[in-house]
Amino acid sequence: PLLSSLPSSWDAAYERELQTFQDIGDTGEIWFGEESMVRIIRWLEKHKVPLDSSVLDIGTGNGVLLVELAKSGYMNLTGIDYSPSAIQLAEKVREKEGMSNIKLKVEDFLAPSAELSGFDICIDKGTFDAISLDPSDAAGKRKLYVASLGRVLKPEGFFLITSCNWTKEELLNEFREGFEILEELPTPKFCFGGRIGNSVTALVFQRQ
């Protein structure tokens, strides 16, 4: 497995959340919080992205973003995650919300199955970050990620990435082959030692 150093800790986290969900019906941690989901949905609505567009959530976690997209009227939704516990949790969340049109699959995005292709929109909140932190060959894995994205996203398709590890310039550099930036989405600013910076970068790319 390409992400061999990651899954054990992620799996453990999701197993805890799965237990919590079964005990009290709580979906657990929403990484990046509500505002990043609102930002993504607003962008799709502002650009009148058709509700039947095929959307892939890369590293879906508990699947909450997909539920919010479904509530906003999107009908063709797929979530993948490397962690089987995450997909189990997302399935429970999907059942609780009665969202039967959300497809969920255990997939390693760095070695995607053949059926993972032809998406109009790919969304990533923190998965590229996690891959980038992998101590074994992070640079090679980032290249694999970009290659996979080129395979699963249609030409002219949109890629929305939210990152708390990478600046806009760094992301432009990572995705320079085959993707061009459409816009940067506004994210909360933080002030540290008198300097204002962004803790989160959110960009929209289009596949060339």
SSE layout:
Blueprint: H1 7-24, H2 33-46, E1 54-58, H3 64-71, E2 76-81, H4 84-97, E3 102-106, E4 119-125, H5 127-132, H6 138-152, E5 153-163, H7 168-174, E6 179-185, E7 189-192, E8 195-198, E9 201-207
Parallel strand pairs: 1-2, 1-4, 2-3, 4-5
Antiparallel strand pairs: 5-9, 6-9, 7-8
Helix pairs in contact: 1-4
Folded structure, characterized:
With 208 residues, the chain is of the alpha/beta class. It has one domain (58-207): 3-Layer(aba) Sandwich (Rossmann fold), CATH 3.40.50.150. The chain is 39% helix and 27% strand. It contains 7 helices and 9 strands. It has helices at 7-24, 33-46, 64-71, 84-97, 127-132, 138-152, 168-174, and strands at 54-58, 76-81, 102-106, 119-125, 153-163, 179-185, 189-192, 195-198, 201-207. Strands 3-2-1-4-5-9-6 form a 7-stranded mixed β-sheet, sandwiched between helices. It has a two-stranded antiparallel sheet with strand order 7-8. A hairpin with a 2-residue loop joins strand 7 (189-192) and strand 8 (195-198).
Based on the model shown, name its key terms:
transferase; EFMT2 methyltransferase; Rossmann fold; alpha/beta; Efm4/METTL10; methyltransferase; globular; 7 helices; 7-stranded mixed β-sheet
